[in-house]
């Protein structure tokens, strides 16, 4: 669908995207979904299952796996640390730092996947 919207072939879209962002479209979208999920965990009382559904991942166990791989902590542990009042800086310091995303980008990409 992205290739249709952009007017590029899927192969050209993937190659151009990889050149610009040093990752595939799927890797980029996964990263954005994880960033959104981290915000939901921090700022809402939604259950992990509700968050998984909202970000468009089909399996809660897969979500936990990729969240843990990306941030070095399970989503349930991340939320527990936040609720216990642990400094967000001490949690985030162990997480890879990404550049700031505009939520409009996230929504557009999630809608088109």
UniProtKB/TrEMBL annotation:
Q: What keywords appear on the UniProt entry?
A: DNA-binding, Transcription, Transcription regulation
- Give the superkingdom in one word: Bacteria
Q: Which InterPro entries match?
A: Homeodomain-like_sf (IPR009057), HTH_AraC (IPR018060), Tscrpt_reg_AraC-type_HTH (IPR020449)
By its UniProt entry, which PROSITE patterns does this protein fall under?
HTH_ARAC_FAMILY_2
Which residue numbers delimit the HTH araC/xylS-type domain? 1-81
Q: Pfam families, from UniProt?
A: HTH_18
Protein name per UniProt: Helix-turn-helix transcriptional regulator
Q: To which species is this protein native?
A: Maribacter litopenaei
């Amino acid at each position: 669908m992205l290739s249709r919207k952009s007017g590029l072939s899927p192969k050209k879209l993937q190659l151009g995207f990889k050149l610009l962002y040093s990752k595939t479209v799927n890797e980029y979208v996964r990263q954005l979904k994880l960033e959104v999920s981290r915000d939901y965990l921090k700022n809402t009382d939604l259950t992990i299952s509700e968050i998984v559904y909202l970000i468009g991942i089909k399996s809660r166990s897969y979500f936990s796996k990729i969240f843990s791989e990306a941030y070095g902590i399970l989503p349930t542990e991340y939320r527990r640390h936040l609720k216990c009042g642990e400094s967000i800086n001490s949690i985030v310091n162990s997480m890879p730092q990404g550049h700031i995303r505009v939520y409009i980008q996230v929504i557009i990409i999630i809608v088109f996947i």
